[in-house]
Amino acid sequence: MDGYHLSRAQLSAMPDPTTAHRRRGAAFTFDDKAFLELVKKLREPLLPESKTVYAPSFDHAIKDPVADDIPIHPAARIVILEGNYLSLNQGLWKEAAELMDELWFVDVDFETARRRLVVRHVAAGIVKDEEEAGNRADESDLVNGRQIVDQRLDVQEVIISKEDKSWRGG
User: Fold this and answer.
1) The domain containing residue 140 runs over which residues?
2) Is residue 164 helix, strand or coil?
3) Rounded-to-5 percentages of helix, strand, coil across the chain
4) DSSP 10-54
C-alpha cells in the first residue's frame, strides 16, 4: 500500500504542510479513497473480459508514488495486500478491511520496531544519522504504530515478528 502515500506535492498543499511532511506515513498522509477503490475493483467478479488492474508503487529514489506501476492480472486468484493501516478501525480503511477475506497482523514490540526503524531510515537516506532517525521514529512512526495497535480491527491471525539472522544474510 506504499503506492498510496500522498505525493510530496499533495502534502505541501495541505492546510499544515509542515506537519504533513513531518508525519508522512501517518494514516492521514495516504490516499485511503484510492486504496478503497482498488480493493473494490479486486472484489469484482472475474469475467472473460476482465482487464488487468493496476496499483501504484512507491519509488524511494524520487520519494513519491508511481501511478499504475503494479499489474494485478485477472488470472490472479489470491491477492495479498500489505500495509500498516489495513486493519485500522477507522473510516475508509475499515471499509476496505471489510471487503477482504482475511486480515492478518504482524506484531512487533515497540523497542524492536524502533531499533529496526532507525536502521531503515539511515540506510534509505531518509535521515542523516541515527539520532535523527530515532527522533523520526519517536515522533512519527511509533505514534502511527500506537494508533494501529490501539485501533485495530479483529484479525484472523497474529504473527509475532522475530529476529531471524537468515533473513538479513546471516
Assistant:
1) 2-162
2) coil
3) 45, 20, 40
4) HHHTSSSHHHHHHTBTBGGGB-HHHHHHHHHHHHSPP-TT---EE
Q: Give the total number of structural domains in the chain.
A: 1
In a domain, 169, yes or no: no
- Is 61 in contact with 124 (CB distance < 8 Å)? no
Inside any domain, residue 135? yes
Count CA within 13 A, CB hemisphere, residue 14: 20
**pTM for the whole thing?**
0.91
Give 96-133 pLDDT, tens digit per residue: 999 999 999 999 999 999 999 999 999 988 899 999 99
Q: Which CATH number covers residue 72?
A: 3.40.50.300
Bridge partners of 107, per DSSP, are 160
Q: Quick check: 156 and 164 in contact, CB under 8 A?
A: no
Location of C-alpha cell 495479498: 80
CA-closest candidate to residue 37, choices 94, 104, 92:
92
